[in-house]
Amino acid sequence: MLYLVRAAVTDRIPSAELPARIEAIERPVFQLDNPWHSVVRKPVSGTQYTSLGPNSTTEATVPVPYDNVKRSRVKSELVYFAEAYRALRLGRFGDARALLEEASALYDMRNPFLGYLLPYYAFAAARANDTAAVEALLAKFAPEQQRFDYHLAKAILGGMTGKTNESMQHVRLALHRRPFTEKRPVATEYQFAEVCEWLFEATRQPVYRTTALDWAKKNQVTQPWFAWSYAGWCPAPS
Question: Is the pTM above the cut of 0.85?
Answer without folding.
Answer: yes
